[in-house]
Amino acid sequence: MRAMTLAKPGGLDKLTLAERPDPGQPGRGEIRVALHASSLNFHDYLVCSGKSPTEDGRIPMADGAGVVEAVGDGVEDFVVGDHIVAGFFPDWQGGPPQVGDFRRVPGDGIDGFACDAVVLPATAFTKAPAGWSHKESATITTAGLTAWRALVVDGGLKAGDTVLVLGTGGVSIYALQIAHAMGAEVIVTSSSDEKLARARELGATHTINYREQPKWGRTVRDLTGGRGVDIVVEVGGPGTLAQSFEAVRIGGHIALIGVLTGVSGEVPTALLMAKQAKLQGLIVGSRLEQQEFVRALDATGIRPVIDRTFALEELANAFRHQESGSHFGKIAVAW
């Protein structure tokens, strides 16, 4: 079968389309999946660029979607022909967080989904939303489920809340769509007026160009009548946390899901204490949470925003497009 592989020490020029042995037929509790799509995330970029080293010859990509080709004994959740989507943490089925590393994450600690087929335990997948293309479904694994957990599972989102979303990448646009569909007002930040206009088309109530308004935390407070927002979807990290603390309401929730501005820095703890707000770190979610998210997608009619689609052998160019920062929503790979 075909597979994209990453040679040590990593780097986009080390991604190569290769032939790998066919995975064979499923054993008990397993399914064989013909894969047809993946989508790019910052975590995948860190692996493929060599910034987060992995084993030589690793098959990258945490996101994967396709069709069930064969079912092993004892599998009851799936039948041949089901459209499915992979989970980020294949061993975390439900309940409180149980994993704090990437040793079992596809495309990092184990082989991922940039290939023609896999044989894995059925519990590593959920069904895809009805009527979705494979490239749409592939956006659920990481970005979609992260946004869902940040807002609904951890943030307790309800109609009438106000949500602040930083940026217009995959997680942020999913968060905008989820919050809008559930009756919340959404404020979006970006450095691009064109992207902010697109965010308003998707339902954003207010938009802020953070280059023009570097103290955007105060702007958010002004837009909410001095109250602040109920939930912040924080993808920046240390470079944006101070403004997020300024923007959140007393007793509000900040979902820390990204480190785009770095992995360490000063945290204004006095402001966080005064706000009595909650700062919650998270990495994607469990299989049960993904199943709940898929049901919500079926109910709301949300469809992911896909910026551009590349072929499997064009994976390196897909990451170069991601590096440019020009994308809005998700970048997909389909074959």
From TrEMBL:
Start and end residues of each stretch annotated as Disordered: 1-27
InterPro entries xref list: ADH-like_C, ADH-like_N, ER, GroES-like_sf, NAD(P)-bd_dom_sf, Zinc_ADH-like
Domain Enoyl reductase (ER): 10-333
Keyword Transferase: no
EC number of this enzyme: 1.1.1.1
Domain of life: Bacteria
One Pfam family per UniProt: ADH_N
Protein name: Alcohol dehydrogenase
Organism: Sphingomonas jeddahensis
Lineage: Bacteria, Pseudomonadati, Pseudomonadota, Alphaproteobacteria, Sphingomonadales
Annotated gene: adh
